[in-house]
What does this fold into?
Amino acid sequence: MGEMDVAATLGSMLSLVIVTALGYVAARLGYLNDEVRPRLSGLIFNVTLPCTVLASVGEADASMGGDDVAWSLILGFALFFVMLAAAALASVVVRARSEERGLYLFMGVLTNTGFIGFAVLESIFGGPSVFLGSIFIAVSNVFLYSIGIGVLTSGGPRDAAGEGGRGAGGRVRAVLRNMLNAPLVASAVAMVVFFAGVGLPAPVMQAADMVGGATSPLAMMLVGLSLAAADLRSVLAQGRLWVYALVRFLVAPLAAYALLAPVVPSRLALGVFVVMLAMPTGSMAGPIAATYGRDAELPARGTIVSTLASFAIVPVLMAVMSAA
It folds into this structure.
């Protein structure tokens, strides 16, 4: 394991908070408002986010060892379900209300792997880990934008299709429709491109990278918009969210590392798995929740709280893994 640059990691996290603050100020000044929110959320979810997913395949590096790649695939398939189980445990610990359970579960599976995750991986393990991180993201995104969206749209006052009152059959049909979405299609295309070894034309990949680069700043500014209507001091005083972050993003990754360390021979793949598991709630959680008709304020608050918590969580994980 290489030398860990804690300052670079914390700098990446701080940049997210700064962009969120800019969105907050823009909302206070009237540049962002509730009329803009649904259109901008749709743009991110259906255009910029799929481009981010597609561009991630360009991080592939064929020089990686076979064991590392194989274990990354295995752990990549497990990642989403471990995140979901950890989020379920955390929601039980904080006694989440029934109408908010779907949001708490979604907050635990939609994490900031694409922005913070790659920066953390490179600072801890070096460049080769970024390729493995791309495998984790490509595999887990298939579950995230299918099962994850199903979790989000279930259990609320209504689902995205407005069929919450039509019984189990209506809810199932709505969830199945929601499973087919632009990010899921982009994830499937990215995986086919990678495993088939078929490179997309350079202009296409460059365009995807350029458009995808707008996802994080736009999403974080939307988080700022969501917070503008709330009292920021009250956001930071949300004890339930701090406990949730502690259980979901620190206790669960530490437990996973302790259980898997004797079993997984690839230390690099295991390290990437733990880092990905510990990443805070993603900036897209609020906008995606709004896209599907759910409350965006709770995920927005969760993004801020878990990102701030990461300032302590990531160094702890670094220390544990480097000492092992």
User: Anything to note?
Assistant: Residues 66-93 form the longest helix (28 residues).
